[in-house]
Design goal:
The complex is a heterodimer.
Chain A lengths: L2 E2 L2 E2 H5 L8 E2 L3 E2 L1 E2 L10 H14 L9 H20 L8 E4 L2 H14 L8 E5 L8 H10 L2 E5 L12 H4 L4 E7 L11 H10 L3 E5 L11 H4 L3 E5 L10 E5 L1 H6 L10 E4 L4 E3 L13 H17 L1 H20 L4 E4 L10 E6 L4 H10 L2 E2 L1 E3 L4 H6 L5 E5 L6 H17 L4
Parallel strand pairs in A: 5-17, 7-8, 7-9, 9-10, 10-11
Antiparallel strand pairs in A: 1-2, 3-4, 6-12, 11-12, 13-14, 15-16, 16-19, 18-19
Chain B lengths: L2 H4 L2 H8 L12 E6 L6 E9 L2 E10 L2 H14 L4 H15 L9 H4 L12 H23 L5
Helix pairs in contact in B: 2-3, 3-6, 4-6
Classes of the chains: A alpha/beta, B alpha+beta.
Chain lengths: ~425, ~150
Amino acid sequence: MTRTQGYDVEAIRKDFPVLARSVAGGHPLVYLDSANTSQKPRQVVEVIERHYLEHNANVARAMHQLGAEATAAFEGGRDKVAQFIGAPSRDEVIFTKNASEALNLVARVLGDAGTVGPGDEIVISQMEHHSNIVPWQLLAERTGATLRWFGVTDEGRLDLDDLDTLVNERTKIVSLTWVSNMLGTINPLDVVIARAHQVGALVAVDASQAVPQIPVDVASLGADFVAFTGHKMVGPTGIGVLWGRYDLLASLPPFLGGGEMIETVTMERSTFAAPPHRFEAGTPPIAQAAGLGAAVDYLSALGMENVAAHEQAITAYALERLQEIDGLTIVGPREPVDRGGAISFALDGVHPHDVAQLLDSRGVAVRAGHHCAKPAHRRFGVQSTTRASFYLYTTEAEIDVLAEAIRHTQRYFKVN
Amino acid sequence: MDVDALYQEIILDHYKNPHGAGLREPHEAEVHHVNPTCGDEITLRVHLDGDTVADVSYDAEGCSISQASASVLYDLLVGKSVPQGLAVLDAFSEVMHGRGQVEPDEEVLEDGIAFAGVAQFPARVKCALLSWMAWKDAVSQAVSDPKEQ
């Protein structure tokens, strides 16, 4: 049964032509790699195509009709994203090239603004994607600040036991993932944000896996920055989003220098545009912004609460089916509670790359490796895992194919 | 693509029972190589006796292809002279980069011919080459900077 409350999964799968493909010599594609990148519906692709074929021009600086149309498409994308995430102002939505750039932007400009220095502390967690580790390591190196982190419990939850000592008067920045791309854990951001603000620290949230699958309202979340990417939420590659509190953004220096981010330029010096343009140097991802606007229209039409309910149901089903397999160990929470739609697992006697290869030979697309979360893997004593990740178009029948393909893998490698 | 072309019986045998695994003394060079895309790692030591590859020992973590490849490397290279070993390496890399079009020479590559199928899976070529690149690196260090025996 693949009818989720709110929308008909079989019906919406028709919006994604790639899902009807056959691969690996005739097997129907079972795409279980949506945490890596989601598939794109026709509605999004058509908006991008129409933009390039009928409205293409550069934005802001072109005084002709096409320039006005392109600007409207680009800024219209910003309006839609702002509304989708509950941003109090459209000027708080900065377009970047991806979530990594958004997080690097925050780390760079906070460093340039002198937010952290020697003796100050930056707090992250052991379950972060490398995009939310490396920029902070670099910032700590540049400024002499100290990097600290939350641990992860055996169950795969954020270890909050030392919250009050870890986040203290020396803490200037806390940057945390909302939903782990590897463990699937949904973190209780509210308690961390409350503690961080109590000690006067700023909070950045990596919402790359959250915005695609749960309703997000940045105003009620209470963080200072939220980063995510378009391609994981049925939108195009090449565009990411940084949301930031306006007063904070207005107080920060620019990120990259170039066109569009200035107010005026002389040979000696420049003054800078107000947010968001201050942080968007050069020709921005115009068609991608139009496409991202179409993506949030698509998600809004389904209803994010329905998408979240489907994700929850399909993940619960997958957790159950996978745990029936002898020799399969889930790395991350095993109960469908506060959990997103990514399940990483180890299979006794078969390396994850070999699992992925065998699944691929049955048409099942998963990811194998460290999923850009090497410290999280080390925490659980594994070098790599196989990850199946689900989205709004995933069906229970596909989970059944996955489970059978895993059993086939075990037979192929003669384990069990 | 036929997955059986990739997972030849010989490869699975070497994977289950790797030859020459473990780190041993003596050695003149030790290297650590990583495949950053998948995280496979190998620590590999080379012991030369004059011009002869007297031992190759290794500690590897990775998929069946990378593990089996290290095992085959051990069988092929220990006992050969360094120039002979480098010639085998060249023959192996040529097959690996041949996209399935290069016919492997069984005289030279022995069990290594089982990796010909890997060449049809571009994503796995690096797995097969990991230990070989580590060996090349270690040998060049051992030759250029021999430790006092």
